[in-house]
Amino acid sequence: MNYRTFGRSGLRVSELFLGAMTFGENWGWGASLDECRKMIDMYADAGGNVIDTANNYTDGASEQIVGELLRTRRDRFVLSSKYTLTLDPADPNASGNHRKSLRRLLDQSLSRLNTDRIDLLWVHIWDSLTPIEETMRALDDAVRAGKVLYVGISDTPAWVVSRANTLAALRGWSPFIGIQVPYSLVQRDIERELLPMADELSLSVAAWSPLGAGRLTGKFTRGSDGGPSRTDRDDVSERDLTIAREVDAVADDLGVTSSQVALAWTMAHRPSVHPIVGARRLEQLSDNLAATDVALPDEALRRLDEAGAIELGFPHDFIASTRNFVYGSVADRVANR
C-alpha cells in the first residue's frame, strides 16, 4: 500500500483506512474480538496504518477493542476517532461540539483507547447550536494540551468548514486537515460543494460507505450471501441496481470483484480521497484491500462515471452553460497556470 500526506500536514497515511464501526458485537452485526485482531493484523501486513473509530461505535466497545489490540503497537498506527454523539441520551450536554462536550467525550475516548493522545480527532457531525469559533478554539486547546495531534470534520456543510478554517488561519488555531463524508458511485452529492472545497483548501477526504452500504458489492445483483446487512433490499433503488450492474460488468471484464472496482473508482479521480473500508469478516477485508492493485482503464472509468452521474445543479450547471457568453470565443483557450 502507498502513502500520502494528509491535508496540509506532514502526516503520512495509507491509501485505505480501516473502519472500526464493525468492531464489537453490541449492535448485533459486528465482529468478535478475535476477528478484529485478525483484521488489524491483515491490514497492517498490507501496509495500512490508519484505524478510524468513534466514541459511540458499538456503544463504546469499538474504542475499547481498538485500544486493547493496539496496546503493544500504538505508535505504528494513526489512531483516528470522533466526538459529538451522545452516550447519555438524558443529558443535554453529553453531546454536541461545545467545549464541555469535547472535554468529556475526549477524556472518555482516551480512557477507552488506552492512550494519551488521539492522532486525528474528527468532529463527528455539524452541531448548529454551537458557534464554530467555540469548536475551533476548544479543539485548538486540545491540540496544545497534547491530547490531540490533528483535527478533521465529518458530515458538515462546505460553508461551515470553510468558515472554520478561515477563522483558524486568522487566529492561529489548528485547522481542519480533512473532511470525512459519504462517497460512492451511488452517492456522489459531495461533488457539488464539498469536493471542490476540499480541493481548494487542500483538505484530504476520508470516504465513508464507499461501497454504498453494500449496494456495490454484488450482494443485491449477483445474489451473493454477505450475511447480515444494515441495508434492506427494499431500500435499494432501481438506480442503485443499474449502477451496481455496471460495476459488476466492469469487474467481470477486469477479472476482479465488484467491491474492488467500486473502491478503485473512489480513488481514481483524486489521490486525496481515502476510502474507509469496514468489514465483519476477514475475507471481506482481504477482498477490499486488493482494491489498491486495481487500475481502472479509461474506458472502464468512463462507463462508471456515466452510470453514476448526477446533476450538479445551480450554480454549477448555469456557470458551465454560460461560459462562452461570459468569456467570449476564447473561453476554451484559457487555462489556469
TrEMBL record:
**Database matches in SUPFAM superfamilies:** NAD(P)-linked oxidoreductase (SSF51430)
CDD domains, per the entry: AKR_AKR9A_9B
Q: What are the entry keywords?
A: Oxidoreductase
Would the keyword Glycoprotein turn up in this protein's UniProt record? no
- Per the database record, which ranges form the NADP-dependent oxidoreductase domain? 16-307
Output the superkingdom of the source species.
Bacteria
Pfam families xref list: Aldo_ket_red (PF00248)
InterPro entries annotated for this entry? AKR_Detox_Biosynth (IPR050523), NAD(P)_OxRdtase_dom_sf (IPR036812), NADP_OxRdtase_dom (IPR023210)
Give me the Gene Ontology terms describing cellular component.
cytosol
GO MF terms here are: oxidoreductase activity
Name of this chain's protein: Aldo/keto reductase
This chain's source organism reads: Actinomadura darangshiensis
